[in-house]
Every structure is written in C-alpha cells, then in structure tokens.
Specification:
Blueprint: H1 11-23, E1 29-35, H2 47-50, E2 56-61, H3 68-80, E3 85-87, H4 99-106, H5 108-116, E4 124-130, H6 136-144, E5 162-165, E6 170-174, H7 186-195, H8 205-219, H9 221-228, H10 232-235, H11 240-251, H12 262-274
Parallel strand pairs: 1-2, 1-4, 2-3, 4-6
Antiparallel strand pairs: 5-6
Helix pairs in contact: 8-9, 8-11, 8-12, 11-12
C-alpha cells in the first residue's frame, strides 16, 4: 500500500491561524469542536498553543454517529486531566442547551468578578475553533437560532471570521476551519479522510476504501459483517484489497468479466460509515491508537 503523506493545507488556513492570534485577547473562552468519532485526529495540535491564554470547552460533535461507550471514555479522559468536554450533536440536538451552562461554569470566577464590579448583564465572549467539516457552521446556526453561517457537507466552506449572538448568554466569534501544515502520522490523515474532514480528492478513493474496510472489521467485526453479510471466519485472513472486494461482491458491484468495481465499493463504504448506516462507530479511543 502506498505510504505517501496525506496533506491538505489551503492558503486561507494560514490566515486563520493569524486571526486566532489576533483575536484571542477579545474573548473569555475558547470552544473547540472535535469529531466524536476521531477526537485525537480532529484536534489541531496548534490550537492549544494559539489559545493557551484562555480556558477551553471541548465539544465532541456528531455524537449520534459515534460509539456512545467510547465517547463516554473520551469525556472521562478530559475530566481526569482537568479539562472540560461535552458530547453534542447538531442534528439530534443532543446537549446543545447545556453549552451555555458549561461556559458559565468554567467562567464562574470571572462572572463573580464582573458581579463584584457591577458589570452585570455583560455577555461573555467565546471563540469557536475546529478543523474543516467538523460542524462549526451548523453549531453556530443552532446557537444563534438563525442561518448566520453557510453550511455544506464539505470542508473549507467558512472562509472569514464573524461575530454571532447566541441564545445562551454569550457572543460567539466563528473562525474558519483550520488544519495544520503536516499531520503527525499517516493514521491522522486516514482518519480525517474517512470522516470527510479533508477533500476526498486528497487520497485515492480505492485506497481509502481498503483502509476503512480493514479498520472497521478490526474494530467492529460484528457490525461490519452484519451490514455486508460476511462471515468473520471466511474473511479473517483477507488483506485489505480482498476484504474490499468481498464487500463489493456481496453488494453486487460487478463489472464485465466478473471483476469487482472497487471504486464504487469504496465510495459506498465511505458514505455508509459517514452516515452511520453500519452503526455508531468510533475510530479512536483515549487509551490506544485504535
């Protein structure tokens, strides 16, 4: 399998890093949005340094697509390290009403100082950050009660910053999604590609299908085999290409000569993983590299 690095760093993302640095002093808290299926891979390692002067609330978005047991493990892992994490979902509305409460809890000491100075009624200010396609625009629209941000199921849509008034007692500075110039390892790039955080053209579709098929079989053999009507014993020794072919054969994705249309199979597998048709699955756990 090719071992080339997976990279995607459009020019506007370098601008976003500058915007974060320039505006961090004007906010009270940072809200970092991660993908609940890949909390480690969807966490930009540069954000912590860029926002270190402000407390952070971590939101694990798309929780309805992720393994709920694994998501609980991530929330507990953050708490054990003194952090603050909350699973949310912009589609189902899970925990969206709790965000304002969490923000006020984290900033309770600052709010107390405001009250002592007679600064009651002042809206808190939060900066929302995260990688592309993690759901920032959807969250901004939910919190504002209006369609303030453009929403599309593809990365790199929000290109400029904007202030938004929320219905939870704080103003929100929405920043464009930002990745980092070089991923720490290939696994990070694969996870981002699998969830659609980077453009599908960055990695070969067939290659991504092979990687995802093997990952899902290893992590969730029961769900994977049930969805594609495969026998675990029959496919346990297959390599990633033959595993992808086994899925395609079951789906009837054949071309002339009886060969498997592996590109069509890969596209189907990616779509069904991203839409949770295989099940609520997570690719990362806090205690291992999954």
């Amino acid at each position: 399998m090719p071992s080339r690095e997976i990279q995607w760093f459009p020019g506007h993302m370098a601008k976003t890093r500058r915007l974060i640095t320039e505006n961090i002093s004007s906010v009270d808290i940072v809200i970092e949005l991660l993908d609940a299926r890949i909390p480690k891979s969807s966490k930009n390692p540069e954000i912590a340094n860029l926002t270190k002067t402000r407390p952070t609330l971590t939101l694990l978005n798309k929780a309805s697509l992720a393994d709920p047991d694994v998501t609980r493990q991530w929330v507990n892992a953050y708490k054990e390290k003194g952090g603050h994490a909350l699973p949310i979902d912009c589609i189902t509305g899970e925990n969206l009403t709790r965000i304002g409460t969490e923000v006020k809890t984290i900033l309770s000491e600052k709010l107390k100082r405001f009250e002592e100075k007679g600064m009651t009624g002042r809206n808190l200010k939060a900066m929302i950050v995260g990688i592309p396609n993690v759901g920032k625009s959807s969250l901004v629209n939910k919190l504002s009660g209006q369609k303030k941000a453009k929403v599309e199921n593809r990365p790199g849509v929000t290109l400029t910053k904007q202030w938004v008034t929320t219905n939870q007692g704080f103003d929100l500075l929405d920043m464009p999604g930002v990745l980092w110039p070089k991923f720490e390892d290939r696994l990070t790039g694969e996870n981002l590609a699998a969830t659609g955080a980077i453009k599908d053209q960055v990695i070969d579709t067939e290659e991504m299908g092979m990687i995802l098929a093997m990952r899902l079989f290893n992590l969730y053999p029961n769900e994977f085999c049930a969805r594609y009507k495969l026998s675990p014993d029959e496919i346990s020794e297959l390599d990633s290409y033959d595993l992808l072919c086994a899925v395609g054969k079951k789906r009837g994705f054949l071309v002339s000569g009886g060969d498997i249309n592996t590109e069509r199979t890969a596209l189907m597998l990616l779509e069904e993983f991203r839409s949770s048709k295989i099940g609520r699955l997570s690719l990362e756990r806090p205690d291992d590299n999954a």
